[in-house]
Amino acid sequence: KPDGSSQTTVNQANNVTAQVNVDPLGRADAQVSLPPQMTQTAQSGGETVVLPIPALPNTALLTVQTGSSQAVKLEIPLSNPTPGVVAILTRPDGSQEIVRTSSVTEGGLVLPVSDGSVLAIQDNSKSFSDIGGHWARGPIQFVSARELFLGTSPSTFAPEETMTRGMLTTVLARLDSAELHEEEVWYAPGVDWAVTQGISDGSNPPGFITREQLVTMLHRYAGSPETSDMDLAFSDTSEIS
After folding, report:
1. Are 68 and 93 in contact (CB under 8 A)?
2. Is the pLDDT of residue 231 over 80?
3. Cα separation of 88 and 102, whole Å?
4. E strand or H helix at 139
5. HSE-up of residue 90 (Cα within 13 Å, Cβ side)
6. How far, in Å, CA of 172 to CA of 213, rounded?
């Protein structure tokens, strides 16, 4: 339209329907309905369903009907996907939560979506003064936008600082959407959660974490899946405890 707004309607033969409205300021409001047959087929094959809508701006409100009792892996097309773009789920009671398990692709945002979900898409990038030109700038924006890492202050991330055991348990607890109540020692809730989950024994939280401790905690977080008994092709295998 002359004012820059637009309206797109999608009606497909397979009963996929969508309505996308974009206001003059570039903000989008989209509603998408997917037939149960499509979502069930995708779930059984472990596939990702790409929503059949125009690429949305990084500021959008999206309502999705999947017709499935289980979460469906969807890709939301975005015109400018960046590491800091997140999806924020609005629950029926009005509370909101960042979907921390979302990932960014060349074409948009991939995440598990439940039937009837209302999602706000927005750029939640943080302004850290010490990551400009750093090789990990993109990953830092990714994890800080999902509030897995909060930085060492509102304006600094300290990318070269060594990670502690308490830091990792806190990050994993946030990834798991655990309720972490404030305590006098900031890492105590994360450590308590990790001990309860069998991820860590809770010892030496302020101590720097080693690479073997890191992979062990990640393996436990993943449910301790079985691994093949193969020889590791590392020259320092004998140093692994």
Report:
1. no
2. no
3. 10
4. helix 137-145
5. 9
6. 14
